[in-house]
Amino acid sequence: MKFLCVECDRQMTFEERRLPGDGTLAAAFKCPACGRVVGLLTNPMETQLVASLGVKIGGSTIAPEPLETIRSQVSTGREGAFTEDTPRTPHSAPHWSSEAEARLARVPTFVRGMVKKIYADYAKERGIAEITPAMMDTARTELGLEGM
Amino acid sequence: MPLRIRTYHELTEADRSGLGAQVGAQRRRVAERLVPVQRIVAVMSGKGGVGKSFVTAHLARALARAGRRVGALDADLNGPTLARLLAAAGPLAVTGGAVEPVAGADGVRCVSMAHLLEDGQPLAFKGPENDAFIWRGALEAAALRELLGDVAWGALDVLLVDLPPGVARLHELLDLLPAPPDVITVTIPTVESADAVRRTLHAARERSARLLGVIENMAGPQFPGDAGDTLAREFAIPLLARIPFNPGDAVWQALGGRL
């Protein structure tokens, strides 16, 4: 899927992605010549189809987690299905605020370990010292973590 | 004057989404993960209830007892039974960016959707129910891809893949693997089973999978027929075993010796 600014005959570039929470996936693309911005909006079925392929519109800066699609998409996952390894260098791990920990605690255990690692990797990659709900929202949007 | 719109392939600027590249990376992940696996053998049948998982489990154990390093992937996502047959209970350990298979009976390394689902619950996905028929197949194919590519199978002499009835999952497996697997087909003696299994044998052969042979399971007076011999003759492949109800270890050992 690519977007062309027909007037400028230039390929538009990905700008940002948003997941407002109603099943919509919104992605903005901008013409590098004239600056015109268009929005791609998918309905919940189309959003799910993208998720089913295990791909992310706009790409991703962090490596996929093992069984990421299964863990993020299965609704009948077993509690305690996984034992997660612990980071070898816990001192370098970002700090979780109490509000972020409370939010993480609401994630089902089937997917919680993976979600925790994704947010921690996101923070480490960007030199973020503390994980907060606001940072989680940003990461969720940037990484396309629909359903996590 | 009509607008001049270039085609998709005429757009050559950098594409940050790189969806094609993402799919390519998924395929490479599977291929790289399976490099240490010497041989992949799919156990299939066109018909349900012929004992594919039973055969897979006992064949895996026989091979392991003979000193082979054996993995068993339960690709029956909606009716997983292989973990129980191999006494391979979870949880699954996530280590170093991969999931470790569970060592079951005779050391067979197993991963099954049964490890991932709540007991008694069907495989169900999040998402809009009204349109589930559109994306469910894609999600199941993605799940199979992850069970191949995200599991640290390690060095194996053989990875047995237990397929569900029908031919759909075989096609998905063939699409995901870097090379077609060897295939063992399980039937029961009846003519109805032969009819169903024949279709999957044709499908496997058309996709260049190597047909190792046919196993006739549940042989005996309960099921009249000669499906095993018929299919072996039609496809010029060996009848690897005729397995009665309640077979002993010697039957499995002999079957393992033929692989």
Assembly state of the chains shown: heterodimer
Of all chain pairs, the largest interface belongs to: A-B, 47 and 52 residues
Uncertain residue segments of chain B: none
CATH topology of chain B, anyone?
A: Rossmann fold
CATH architecture of chain B: 3-Layer(aba) Sandwich
Percent of residues in helices of chain B = 25-40%
Helix tally of chain A equals 5
What is the terminal separation of chain B in angstroms? 68 Å
Largest sheet of chain A: 3 strands, antiparallel
Q: Which structural class fits the helix and strand makeup of chain B?
A: alpha/beta
The CATH top-level class label of the largest domain in chain A: Mainly Alpha
Which architecture name of the largest domain in chain A does CATH use?
Orthogonal Bundle
How much helix is in the residues of chain A?
25-40%
DSSP helix count of chain B? 8
Q: Output the CATH class name of chain B.
A: Alpha Beta
Give a structural overview.
By secondary structure, chain A is an alpha+beta fold. Chain A has two domains: 1-57, N-terminal domain of TfIIb (Single Sheet), CATH 2.20.25; 60-148, Helicase, Ruva Protein, domain 3, CATH 1.10.8.550. Chain A has helices at residues 44-52, 68-73, 98-105, 109-125, 133-143; strands at residues 4-5, 10-11, 13-18, 25-30, 37-42, 82-84, 95-96, 130-131. In chain A, β4 (25-30) and β5 form a beta hairpin. Chain A is globular and about 55 Å long. Chain B has 259 residues and is α/β, with parallel strands linked by helices. Chain B has a single domain (37-256), classed as Rossmann fold, CATH 3.40.50.300. In chain B, strands 5-6-2-7-1-8-9-10 form an eight-stranded mixed sheet, sandwiched between helices. In chain B, strands 3-4 form a two-stranded antiparallel sheet. In chain B, a hairpin with a 2-residue loop joins β3 (92-95) and β4. In chain B, α2 (52-65) crosses α8 and α6 runs parallel beside α7 (227-235). Chain B is globular. The N and C termini of chain B lie far apart (68 Å). The model of chain B has no long low-confidence stretch (mean pLDDT 94). Classes of the chains: A alpha+beta (148), B alpha/beta (259). Chains A and B meet through β2, α1, α2, β6 and α4 of A and α1, β3 and α4 of B. β6 (82-84) of chain A pairs parallel with β3 of chain B, so a sheet runs across the interface.
